[in-house]
Amino acid sequence: FVGESQVIIFILVGFSDYPDFQILLFLIFLTIYVITVLGNLGMIAIIIMDTKLHTPMYFFLKHLSFVDFCYSTVVAPKLLENLLAEDRSISIKGCISQFSIGVICVVTEAVMLAVMAYDRFVAICYPLLYTVSMSPKLCILLVSITYSWGIISSIIFTYSLLVLSFCETKIINNFVCEYSVILSASCSDKHFSEMIRFIFANLNALFTLIIILTSYFLIFVTIFKMNSSSGRYKAFSTCASHLTAVSIFYGTILFLYCIPSSQNSWLLVKVGSVLYLVVIPMLNPLIYSLRNNVVKEAIRKLMYLKIISP
After folding, report:
1. Which GO cellular component terms are attached (predicted)?
2. Residue among 198, 167, 199, 202 at smallest CA distance from 185
3. What is the pTM of this model?
């Protein structure tokens, strides 16, 4: 087991195959991380300060921004450190801890996107009942369930790794501790862990995708039944930001996990991991601010108040 007296460490190879680009990659990822932090914390601040954004849609968006901030903070610091340091080692406990927190974030984000899809479904298909249906108590309950399921999933995945044995130092050809690389480093029977991964990974993906696809199918049916073109445009615009975020999130996951398993695919895996773990947390606040007129108006108002304030 992990807790045995032998010290087990992993070596995260990361992007060390490109020594001439280490500084450039460091600056790129540092810029992405700074934008991610400022974008997500800024989105949270705007939603809290502007009373017009105190609606269920932006309540969920606030928590999505918080999850993206946490997710990026789990991954980016170690990535930046490894781009400058010669010692790229990480303990097995540190690796599993990074993975465990990452699972909480990614599962919570997936379920949160499903909850936001349901919110858009109620808003467009049943607008007269929206205020009653999406009550503050229900919104808090849905967010609580979202975080709770993220934590439960993390406990299950982490337990399936903790029952494994690790015998020696392993070189990991990635910049982050993912389930597959930790699993491949084990020297014990992996059948139980592989079964857990297959069941719960597919359960989470299937469950959230069913909610999202069903919600948007009913939304599109309702929109196409509208007689007014301006009404259709307004309904589409309220979904545009969320639909863009969903497409990027699940599109990247499918890109990452549909890569054929071969020795030549490691570069694509790293690129997919960068998109999935580093870029998406940066894109979400940009998507919701650039494609959302209400958010843009709130930003302009706050900037105006900042300028004219003593």
Report:
1. plasma membrane
2. 167
3. 0.86
